[in-house]
TrEMBL record:
Matching Gene3D superfamilies: Transferase(Phosphotransferase) domain 1 (1.10.510.10)
Domain Protein kinase: 242-478
SUPFAM superfamilies in the cross-refs: Protein kinase-like (PK-like)
Protein name per Swiss-Prot or TrEMBL: Protein kinase domain-containing protein
Signal sequence annotation: none
PANTHER family listed in its UniProt record: MITOGEN-ACTIVATED PROTEIN KINASE KINASE KINASE 20-RELATED (PTHR43289), SERINE_THREONINE-PROTEIN KINASE NEKL-3 (PTHR43289:SF6)
InterPro entries, alphabetized: Kinase-like_dom_sf (IPR011009), Prot_kinase_dom (IPR000719)
PROSITE patterns assigned: PROTEIN_KINASE_DOM (PS50011)
Length: 609
């Protein structure tokens, strides 16, 4: 027993004599009759009469002392009654009581104490874990919406404990990991002793999310005709958010699938980054650290919302699930083919990548993995930077001939030697991409392209230009629009063939600025560095060649209240001279929504007004 504290209040000389004579019980009775219950409890505590001490401390309004005596008494009924007293106590007093219980090794009772108020759920969960109740700890965290932490408390999962496996399946489902939810629900059903109807519905949802709708319906028919409320199960699986439709080549590691977001109806890419690892390997701390590093950089870059950086729908680092919006174009690797791309077109593609890199480098973000197989193109044919930080999981990628070839030709030499990627290594990779696009193969020779980026390919990172400097070099005007032709596919919009004496040549949409446009505003608009403007391909005086709109683009109808819908920040980003002229001419028809859902200003509409 711990040392008894000093009496709550001083004793008189007569009271001290009674103590010295061993008359503790008589003294306690006298003290109680005079209303001094706290001292009476202290007196009885001297002779280990904890039951009486506990009662007197409770009457005196000293719950902490009463709890100390109840712990020493060791009777569960008394302890339960004293813990209930703390319902009316303040949070600080309950916290002290929980700490006392934990010091005495009564962790389950400490968790009960913390459950009486709005205390930190992690503290309650820790107490339950120390008490050996991992399932209870996980439920506490799950109720506090700390789903990932709740699942971590349950691991490693037991092989045959139905309630634990069922909770793990439910938590996996909440995290969006349909595969783990299915696997754990099946294990829980095999373990028995749990709600089979609820597990059947969960299993059906998971199978439906993975695209196995028929299997989901079979599960619903075979696992329990009714739930705990006597309700019949539904006749079709409740759809999950993401439905897998087809497999895709893995760009990062593991496996990849094409699917649809059943909430937004948008097409998505589902990357299971840990699919190639055994379950034990996925729990390796080094693997989790790598995924967390990838997660932090990817979300930080996506938060920039730059049009050259792919967005992220969902990234669960612990489960190794990365979900990206699906892009309509092919990856950049498919564009590296003989006989090679015209330099002007390759320079335009690389310039768009550099715009995103410049914005990211300015905030200290490094991409680290500019491999062409990981860079896909949008519906307009523009290459997009994939999630930043994929280099952190390079060790998870199984050896593939294509990936190895890209690593050897696109990655900076210092990174191949084991150094950490930097902004300078990103610049090297972009320059190598330009050369590969023009050469038509990885590692090929393209003297004109190489001369343009010779310093960016320097072995010494310090001698390479930064993204802004290289971007300015990529933005040179072209003399012949035919150099920009991407393919022989049909033009999505009726183009004007430019081959007259105006100096414009190639394919595009030609408009002539209306007389109301003064030269200063026109020059400012056409030189504006705003990605959301319809691209200007060439210009000769007041005649302008504009990129044709791809198939699937939609203009707003004339009666649409565009002021409430359109992102007016695009207009605000224009130079002052151009912004005023654009606002004066702005109509609903001047706004175009691309197939990717991006808003753009239509110069073919604005310049003619």
């Amino acid at each position: 027993m711990a040392a008894v504290p000093a009496p709550p209040e001083p004793l008189t000389a007569d009271e001290q004599r009674m103590l010295a004579q061993g008359k503790h019980e008589a003294l306690a009775q006298l003290l109680a009759q005079s209303g001094r219950h706290a001292v009476a409890g202290w007196v009885l505590e001297q002779i280990w009469e904890f039951a009486g001490a506990c009662e007197h401390y409770a009457r005196a309004g000293r719950p902490l002392d009463a709890l100390r005596a109840a712990i020493e008494l060791g009777r569960s009924d008394v302890l339960d009654r004293i813990i209930a007293v703390f319902t009316a106590a303040d949070a600080d007093t309950r916290q002290q009581a929980a700490a006392l219980l934990q010091r005495k090794g009564r962790h389950a009772d400490a968790a009960r104490m913390l459950a009486l108020g709005d205390h930190d759920p992690e503290a309650r969960a820790r107490a339950l874990v120390r008490a050996g109740d991992r399932l209870g700890a996980a439920r506490v965290l799950a109720e506090a919406d700390r789903v990932r932490e709740a699942l971590a408390v349950l691991e490693p999962l037991p092989e045959r404990h139905g309630p634990t496996l069922q909770l793990a399946a439910e938590l996996s489902w909440e995290l969006g990991d349909a595969e783990a939810a299915v696997r754990r629900a099946q294990a829980a059903i095999r373990a028995g002793g749990v709600d089979r109807a609820a597990l059947g519905r969960l299993l059906a949802r998971g199978l439906g999310a993975l695209g196995h709708d028929l299997a989901a319906q079979i599960v619903l028919q075979s696992h329990g005709p009714a739930n705990s409320r006597g309700e019949a199960p539904p006749t079709a699986p409740v759809p999950a958010r993401f439905q897998v439709r087809a497999s895709l080549p893995a760009s990062f590691s593991g496996a990849a699938y094409e699917g649809i977001d059943r909430v937004t109806l948008a097409e998505v890419e589902i990357h299971l980054l840990l699919a190639e690892l055994q379950e034990g390997g996925s729990a390796d701390p080094a693997v989790q650290d790598a995924l967390e590093a990838f997660h932090r950089r990817a979300l930080a870059a996506a938060a920039l919302e730059h049009p050259a950086i792919r967005g992220i729908v969902q990234f669960d680092a612990r489960a190794g699930i990365l979900i990206l919006p699906h892009e309509a174009g092919s990856n950049l690797r498919a564009l590296i083919r003989p006989p090679g791309m015209p330099l002007a077109r390759a320079r335009a593609l690389v310039a768009f990548l550099l715009e995103g890199l410049a914005a990211a480098h300015l905030r200290g973000l490094v991409h680290g993995s500019l491999l062409p197989a990981q860079l896909v193109c949008d519906a307009a044919g523009r290459p997009l930077l994939g999630p930043f930080g994929a280099d952190a999981i390079a060790g998870l990628i199984a050896t593939r001939t294509g990936a190895l070839e890209e690593l050897l030709t696109i990655t900076a030499p210092e990174v191949r030697a084991g150094a950490t990627p930097t902004a300078a290594s990103d610049i090297y990779s972009v320059a190598a991409l330009l050369v590969a696009l023009v050469a038509g193969n990885l590692g090929g020779a393209a003297p004109e392209a190489r001369a343009l980026v010779e310093d960016a390919l320097a072995d010494d990172p310090a001698k390479r230009p930064d993204a802004a400097a290289l971007l300015a070099r990529m933005r040179r005007r072209v003399a012949d629009l035919r150099d920009l032709s991407m393919s022989t596919e049909p033009i999505r919009q009726d183009p004007t063939v430019m081959s007259d004496d105006s100096g414009l040549a190639g394919h595009g949409v030609v408009v002539e600025a209306a007389p109301g446009w003064d030269d200063i505003a026109l020059d400012a608009l056409l030189a504006a560095d705003v990605p959301a403007l319809q691209p200007v391909l060439d210009r000769q005086g007041r005649r302008v060649a504009l990129a044709a709109w791809p198939e699937g683009c939609r203009r707003l109808a004339d009666d649409v209240p565009f002021i409430q819908l359109a992102p007016m920040a695009i207009v605000d980003a224009l130079p002052v001279e151009a912004a005023a002229a654009v606002r004066a001419r702005l109509t609903a028809g001047a706004w175009v929504v691309t197939p990717a859902g991006e808003w753009m200003l239509a110069l073919d509409e604005l310049l003619t007004r």
